Amino acid sequence: MNSYCLQVVGDYACFTRPEMKVERVSYDVITPSAARALFETILWKPAIRWRIRRIEVLQPIRWINLRRNEVGAVISTSNVQQAMNAGAGSLALYVEDERQQRAGLFLRDVAYRVHAELDVRTGEPRQKYEEMFQRRAGKGQWVNQPYLGCREFAADVRLVDAAAPGPVPIPETRDLGWMLHDLDFGNSASPQPRFFRAQMQAGVIEVPAFGEAAA
Fold it and tell me: What is the pTM of this model?
């Protein structure tokens, strides 16, 4: 199975810890689910699934406190369904009424190399999707703008040769604690998070298979 590597750079990032309910606090490094989303900005189809295998941290972990204006509400799903059934309805959300100021602890000056494998869940040939991905990544074509946790934190992403010499990961080893691996979409109505114990060894985090993550 081919492995692909994306080199990712950004000024700011926020991979929000789910246990923080009021203020946003980022994990120390990019999570596998956020890394998967970067691959999906290049190619996503219902038939495929990206499996993140390794994360290399290329810049020292730096933090910044920011206070931002956010919208504290979302449009109700039930209101959307009622409007769809009725063919009319009010779905307006007034930003001035819902605006709230929140502080956050974010990452700054981040750079990673993320390695992933392409899993085809149907009987279709893998080569078809591998060629699509390489063609799109080579041309810099995105389904949407790649971002680092929050959509306002844009990422510079490019496909690199995983076997070629590249930037050296930071010389740091530490236990990063429990980290979100990804969501289990087995029940699409209620996706459940799964976690793993992230160990950074000389700037490299080996990501276990999704089936080995704890619910």
Answer: 0.86
